[in-house]
Amino acid sequence: MTQPAPQPSTAVDSPAAPPDLPADAETAEETAVSGWPAKAWNWACHRLNPDPELDPDNRFEFTKVELVERLKTDDPDIAQEILAEAEQIAERMVDGRAESVERRAATLQSATAIAGSFSSAGGTLLVTRINGRPWQVVIGLLLLWVTGSLGLCGWRATQASSKIHPWSVLPSTAILTRASQTIPESRIERAVQVLRAAGWNARYARYKVTMLERAGEHLTRASLGLPVLIAAVAIYALRH
């Protein structure tokens, strides 16, 4: 029995659908990470540079046509109010959060420099002043804990203050169509562009917030380990 020839697709500007895989098929990615060294490497990479998660507060995951239909109006004043509210929403969802995080993260990035100087001084102390293997192990582990936490704090702060993902920006060529639109149409299209950009960028703003929170956690660990390290050095000095 012959099968009919496949009909050409009529979809426009749509990516080709991936072929269906059987239930027991093994993808190339699964094959690549089949060994435990590769899995450990992928786990470490994901921990150091996690993927941005979708923002649960994002309420604008619509297509451009859907948003235009929801916001469409013929009143210029209402269109202006919609545009102003869209800009306020974008400021609250993305711009305000991102700028606040970047300012705070900049102050935490100095932790990397502190970790470098601290590890250098601590290494010199271990080599020249601390005698006895048990004391060297204890103080060395505490030093590693503090400097490692400070270094990770600086790393997370750098991730929070950097734009390493493809952020959406308003299309600059949209101005070329403004003259052919009515005032309400122009304002509504601008509001749609603002909301869609905010909907896309919300995950990256949330990523920045998450990285800043993790930087604070690492700084807390370093702050807890530092008094213990100082106490261990003081006890060693008193006993020797």
From TrEMBL:
Low complexity: bias regions: 22-34
Region (Disordered): 1-34
Key words, A-Z: Membrane, Transmembrane, Transmembrane helix
Bias kind Polar residues: ranges: 1-10
TM segment ranges: 135-155, 218-238
Full protein name: Uncharacterized protein
Organism expressing this protein natively: Paraconexibacter antarcticus
Organism classification: Bacteria, Bacillati, Actinomycetota, Thermoleophilia, Solirubrobacterales
